[in-house]
Amino acid sequence: MSLGQQLAPHLPFLRRYGRALTGSQSHGDKYVRATLEAIVAAPDEFPKDVDPRLGLYRMFQAIWSSANYDEMGDEGVGDTDGHAAVARARMSRMTPLSRQALLLTAMEGFTPEDAAYLIDVDANEVEELVAAALAEIEGQTRARVLIIEDEPIIAMDIETIVRDLGHDVTGVAVTRDEAVALAMEERPGLVLADIQLADDSSGIDAVKDILAEFEVPVIFITAFPERLLTGERPEPTFLITKPFQRSTVKAAISQALFFDQTTVPGA
């Protein structure tokens, strides 16, 4: 099996990580493309002594760390307007390395040992970085959250997680029309949306309707993440895979709010 064939199944999830890390589909996908270009240009430099997925993320981390790509988001990409300034404001309180450690372990499911390899630190330091990131999350601005989910058990689970994090829930919608109505009635500061809803309507369409009225960060929830991580069309920046862990939801919410301009004092 060629290296390309080995890496292909992992690309959608690398896009998820890149988008969550940068707060932008376009920005995150550019880092993924740059990673693939680096692998094609120098295949002999791809790590041979580790699992292909681990090697892929290691190459991505090298690109992310490179100063040559620090200004990748300043090329006129529409959905990154204002994100750089917001990120810098947040980074003054949470270091990029701590966010990487949290996302790699909580969202991407790497062990502390694997995460240590990826960001080139000791395993014990990964635990300290994650703890620091979680401490910063506790100090984040609280948000009012709209949940769009048609499965009652999952909706209750999400609502419990959201409230335990200190956020308020403005409502739980099970259809597109109900979601839009709730959003208009009580404007949320964050939306958590399932893709497929009870009446065969779409959570994506519900979010489009809401975004046509006002800007709000959105996290999508789906059992089929590969369908929304192709990099070939406008796709979600933040994505949670069903079944999900509490830590995954927590990390996703923290990142969505991290890049939301309305949660930065003075923004």
TrEMBL record:
CDD domains in alphabetical order: REC_PhyR
Matching InterPro entries: Bact_response_regulator, CheY-like_superfamily, PhyR_sigma2, PhyR_sigma4, Sig_resp-reg_PhyR, Sig_transdc_resp-reg_receiver
Signal sequence extent: none
SUPFAM superfamilies linked: CheY-like
Record bears the keyword Plastid: no
Gene Ontology BP terms: phosphorelay signal transduction system
Domain Response regulatory per the UniProt entry, residue ranges: 144-257
Modified residue annotations for 4-aspartylphosphate: 194
Keywords: Phosphoprotein
Record-linked SMART domains: REC
Segments forming a coiled coil: none
Protein name, UniProt field: CheY-like chemotaxis protein
Organism expressing this protein natively: Sphingomonas aerolata
Lineage: Bacteria, Pseudomonadati, Pseudomonadota, Alphaproteobacteria, Sphingomonadales
